[in-house]
Structure to design on (145 residues):
């Protein structure tokens, strides 16, 4: 009778070892979209009024829309780098000021924010509602052409 009991113990030991191996190989948790630096803590998203205040205080405004969208209207002083090019062009961005990322509605800007946070930018946020909310609030815009 000791033979079946030994087999069960061996199987249980093997299952515990496999479980520990799987847990040890689990991916690291996704970092919070809020900047961790206490000195430069920014919320994951900001309102139009907050974005305008950040811009007025010297924040860099990064527009991640496509050139056609940009030409139709953008925030004065903003810089255009389409989202699809952002990962390869992060070297063009300042690391010593806050960055407000903008798109049409807020989805692409959240992705852009996460790219920048993931590459070590210390203070980045996304404009909630994007240019749609910016325009609806009557904020200044300029168009090309």
């Amino acid at each position: 009778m000791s033979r079946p009991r030994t087999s069960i113990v061996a199987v249980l030991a093997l299952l515990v070892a496999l479980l520990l191996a799987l847990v040890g190989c689990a991916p690291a948790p996704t970092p919070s979209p809020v900047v961790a630096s206490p000195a430069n803590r920014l919320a994951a998203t900001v309102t139009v009024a907050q974005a305008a205040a950040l811009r007025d205080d010297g924040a860099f405004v990064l527009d991640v829309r496509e050139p056609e969208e940009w030409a139709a209207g953008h925030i004065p002083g903003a810089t255009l780098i389409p989202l699809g090019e952002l990962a390869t062009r992060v070297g063009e961005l300042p690391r010593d000021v806050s960055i407000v990322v903008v798109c049409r509605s807020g989805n692409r800007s959240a992705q852009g924010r996460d790219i920048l946070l993931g590459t070590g930018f210390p203070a980045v946020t996304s404009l909630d509602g994007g240019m749609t909310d910016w325009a609806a609030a009557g904020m200044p815009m300029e168009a090309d052409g």
Summary: Residues 18 and 24 are 10 Å apart (CA to CA). Strands lie at 45-46, 60-63, 79-80, 99-102, 124-127. Residues 18-38 have pLDDT under 50 and may be disordered. The radius of gyration is 23 Å.
